[in-house]
Amino acid sequence: MSCKTDTVSDAGGATRCGPHHVAIIMDGNGRWAQSRGRPRLFGHHAGARRVREVVECCPELGVKYLTIFAFSTENWKRTQVEVAGLMSLFRRYISKEMKALAARNVRVRFIGDRVRLDAKLVKLMDQLEEETQENDGTHLTIALNYGGRDEVARATKRLAQDVAAGKLDPEKVDQETLPRYLDTHVLPDPDLVIRTSGEARISNFLLWQSAYAEYEFIDTLWPDFTSEEMGRLCRSYGSRDRRFGGVKT
Ligand code: IPE
Ligand code: IPE
Ligand code: MG
User: Which of 6, 36, 38, 245 keeps 20 to 30 A from 139, CA to CA?
Assistant: First the structure.
């Protein structure tokens, strides 16, 4: 079988084309905690602990790029307690996982607007990116203070600045131009976008990049998501017929 991307074996051992880039909207932490009578932050901590297993199963599944949605530009609307708790969790997560990610040949990048994030967190993000920049295993991208519309607006601003500075000819602007200004400019488009927790919406995630992605909306709450479920979704992706507007011959 010839695959443009990587392959993944199903239960019977047959080989199928798996997704090269999986993006995940990790949703449901709050409900997971509330159903246990615990505060929402308890769910965020449980959710953060799930990330390692999912990152680690990527090589076996042929997933070269994994992008995870950790905090959206809209999540600032939450209570100060929840937002502060999440920011402190991100700092802890980065410090705690730095060694393991580096040792597992994971290359980490962050997307989103860093301007509103506190200096200590931004320093840790820079450090993690730097520590892992030579790695060529799984490319893990963490979307933090990320919003698709915000990203397109920031990209458009830089594009306009290049036009004003005479570096870019407006006549030459086409659909290949804008992605070069997006936070994701070094990443391929996602093949498969997974959202946990039963919500069937994309909540401002990778708007431009997901134009032709396949979607999986699953009921599992993020703290219950496992590598087995990830494997099942990657195998199911392999049986989909992506036509990109064409006709299968
Ligand atoms: C996703 O879980 C994590 C973040 C958005 C930071 P939620 O906190 O949205 O959990 P629910 O959707 O309220 O259950
Ligand atoms: C999307 O989840 C953002 C992240 C998972 C980080 P939300 O819980 O914020 O999305 P809505 O509010 O249900 O659309
Ligand atoms: Mg939610």
Answer: 245
Q: Give a yes or no: residue 244 inside a domain.
A: no
196 Cα to the center of ligand 3, angstroms = 9
pTM: 0.95
* Residue tagged 């929402």 (tokens): 40
**Ligand 2, atom 14, residue with closest C-alpha:** 203
Tokens of 26: 């990790």
Mean pLDDT across the chain, nearest whole number? Answer: 95
| Number of domains within the chain | 1
Cα-to-centroid distance, 31 and ligand 2 (Å): 12
What is the distance between the alpha carbons of residues 194 and 19, in angstroms, rounded to a whole number?
Answer: 12
| Dist CA 155 CA 189 (whole Å) | 16
Domain with 229 in it: what CATH number?
Answer: 3.40.1180.10
Give SS3 for 240. coil
Structural domain including 185 reads 7-238
Rounded Cα distance, 137 and 143, in Å: 19
- Cα 203 to ligand 2 centre (Å): 6
Q: How many CA atoms lie within 13 A of 208 on its CB side?
A: 22
Question: Is ligand 1 within 6 A of the CB of residue 205?
Answer: no
| Residue 1 in this model has a pLDDT that exceeds 50 | no
**DSSP label at residue 128:** H
CA atoms of 143 and 67, how far apart (whole Å): 7
Active site residue 136: no
| Structural tokens at position 77 | 């609307």
Catalytic pick among 6, 10, 29, 75: 75
For residue 191, indicate whether it is catalytic.
no
